[in-house]
Amino acid sequence: MSSRRRALKLIPAVAAIALLVSSCTNSGDTNTTTDASDSITVAIAAMPTSYDLEGNWAASNENYTLWSQTMVGLLRYKYVETDGVLVQDFNQYEGVLADEDEPYTVSDDGQDYTFHLREGVVSQAGNPFTAQDVYYSIDRKLSVDGGRLNQIKDYFYSIDQLEIVDDYTITFHLDDVGNDNVFLQMLTGQMGRIWDSTEMKAHATTDDPWSEDWAAQNTGAGYGPYDVDSVTADQQVVLTANEDYVLGAPAIKTVTLQVVSDSGTRAQMLASSDVQIAEALTPTDQESIQDDENVQMAEVDNPIEFVDLALVQNKAPFDDKLVRQAFMYAVPYDELIEQIYRGRATTSPGWFTPTMGVPGLSTDPAYTYDIDKAKELLAEAGKSSVDVTLTVSNAIPDIVDAAIMIASYAKDAGFNVTVEQLAPAEFATGRLETTFESMLMSNRSQQQAPSYVRNFFLPGDVSNSGAYVPTDEWLALNQVAIDAGTGTSEEAAPYWEKVNEFINDDASQLPILYRQPNQAYATTLEGMSYRYDNTVDYSVLTPAGS
Amino acid sequence: MSWYERNRWWVLRLIRLPIDIFVFATLAFFLIRLLPGDPVAVALATRSDPVTPELEQTLRVEMGLDGTLWDQLLRFWAGLLHGDLGTSLETGIPVTQEVLSRLPATVEIILLGLGGAFTATMILGFCYIRFANDKLRRGIRLISSFATSVPVFVVAIFGIIIFYVVLHWLPAPLGRVASGTLPVVTGFPLLDEALSGRWDLLGQTLIRYILPVGAMVLTYTPNLLTQFIGGLDRELTQTATRFQVAAGARRPWIYFSVMRRSVSSVVVIFGLFFGALIGGAVVIESLFGFGGLGQLGVRAVGSVDFPALQGFLILIVAFCLVMFLLVDLVNMWLDPRRRPGVASEGK
């Protein structure tokens, strides 16, 4: 009993000591801003869940970021500075692991791409880079479930098409590639990352020959500008610069990615200098800090992130093209841009953006808000009012708001739109199984090549959200365009214009507006970037004035 | 009285524990499968290539979601008996590791918050019976009247607004440390910082704990206090107390006796809050950027990660059941009259 009594007496004393200790510790660190100009903190929306995007891992924005910062490929799109933003030009390539001056040569018949590799490059694990690493990486992409070289499978489908000429030369023998220029884009984009084969093989097991388990949760088997230094579950990932990075050691040596789940809080933390970059901001939150003296935001001429409206063709009411077209005329494009996206968006000419480099392609909006036209088309379809369910994921506030706005404006044309908000998982399932009548979502085409647009209209493809069934006319139009010349050639341009008109006219799945980047940076940084994958490239950032 | 009869009260509870967990795990297995959304579809949805039936089937087998529901249940039971809860579909990390790596950090913050509330309750309760001051006692009753009136996250948000946004007295709610990485030894952040000799980080973490712990103390003290002073009022007039006074027992001993007899309902409420907070700490954790068990649960629901969600629920429930068992055992130890099967119950 006496011991228990003593224990009870101790409780207040312990509490008092604890309070004393906490008040005596350094209370001066009320500002978390890193003083060192070569260290930054970035507020991100969620933790990355996997570092390897070659398997069946979710391609979240954060997963892409880690994939892009820890791994590089043979090539990258050239950065062109416009208005203080480094924008990637999707038609200019520069060597990363491939040689700086002459990254690749193409045979006269356009079938063989020979890559000249840089010498003296070492991986994050310290192993020298050779053609063997390229061979291993391509072999892995072809072998793992979800390797995703599907987009070029018509002309590159077997590891036998890859020939190691010597330690620093490797040739892809394509099979009847024609004028399709997606090949280089594939190698430049997400699927072009090169592994350090020595390090990867060290983690292989009989059950896991491609080290998928290891690569999902570990980095260090690549050549990227950063490596994951430490992870605190659900809270932060610390990246440290790779001093041996092939394009030169990054100026920012430490990047702390800190999870702050609320977009508004991320924005405020940037405004109060607690973080130097805030990612995945809603348009409203971007607007709330855009005039802050500590904040800058990237604006680009031709953004590629878009709001995707899919009118699913496999059931009523959108099995009728006239009804689809009527609905497209009932969408308040300008209002969406102004009210929901706060002016940080541009009108949509359809799937074909100026970034694709198709000469003279029209930039006129595919559709405009025209109630009379919508009514006329509905009347032609023999209808005066149509019930529509527009489904969205409840995880993206601006998409939900946009859907609600579309519903209220489309009413005037005779569309009774019910907005159905679903949890992301349920939305993803319905989208895949094309069970919805229509849906609105955030989307992006990471390969900005005209011939790549076809991938959004392939039967059974995840991206074919409108359940479009290719017609002979569609297939012929595409073939003629591809046969006419490369995607950026004068010869092919008029044919791509026709393809664009055909898709717009069909009105099954269309980008209804293109939105500006959703990140914001502190003014203490230079080197804002806009990339094909909408991630921030920390490796091109420098402290302002340095 | 045999050993078994004397100890039946805790032996039976211990035997029941694994059975309870198994029954709940089976319930969780079925409940989770009622969630809208198919994990395979979610995994396929972020790709951009044709989805063939073969690819879908491959993925289904990979995720252990092939076969009938009964096949899956049998596999799940087999895993359960081996202590294997499978691997997360989203990260590929074993679920047990996913949960157990987060549990200590969540337990730490809850223990500090509820421990603080419990301490405050004991101190206020002692003052309540020690000082015959009407104003003081009215004040203590007033505090207890705030029970269940304001949710903890509201208090926390107000705290953030006042002390970080307006006054800048406390740092941004950006995790447990200003920068750098928490050392991991036991998983309890404060303990690990002390064990690794990272006193700088320990100081930072203590400062960052002021608001969340303060919010929990402010929110939960009235709840515990209500139970406590109710008990005190009752026990003060009990025959046992009068006997002690009449027999001339020393004051401190009488206080201790009264408090001991009154604390059992506080312990029960403490246990209930603890159980609720283990899974429900998500709000506090996300407000302060701490991460923890709650975040794992939210992530698993969002991506219909069946194994992670199952594991999360099973381990949380196991933890809570153990917690409730402890609460009961503590109460029976504090007050032998509560033991089932003891002579006082006239059996």
From TrEMBL, chain A:
Protein name (database record): Peptide/nickel transport system substrate-binding protein
Record PROSITE patterns: PROKAR_LIPOPROTEIN
InterPro entries listed in its UniProt record: Peptide/Ni-bd, SBP_5, SBP_5_dom
A Pfam family this chain is assigned to: SBP_bac_5
Every Solute-binding protein family domain range: 103-458
Domain of life of the organism encoding this protein: Bacteria
Signal peptide span: 1-27
Keywords: Signal
From TrEMBL, chain B:
Keywords: Cell membrane, Membrane, Transmembrane, Transmembrane helix, Transport
Compartments reported by the entry: Cell membrane
Membrane spanning stretches: 12-32, 109-131, 143-167, 206-225, 266-288, 308-330
Gene source species: Brooklawnia cerclae
PANTHER family per record: DIPEPTIDE TRANSPORT SYSTEM PERMEASE PROTEIN DPPB-RELATED
Residue span(s) of domain ABC transmembrane type-1: 103-327
Keyword Transmembrane helix: yes
Protein's UniProt keywords contain Iron-sulfur: no
Protein name, as recorded: Peptide/nickel transport system permease protein
Topology term for the membrane: Multi-pass membrane protein
Cited InterPro entries: MetI-like (IPR000515), MetI-like_sf (IPR035906)
Entry's family note: Belongs to the binding-protein-dependent transport system permease family.
Pfam families xrefs: BPD_transp_1 (PF00528)
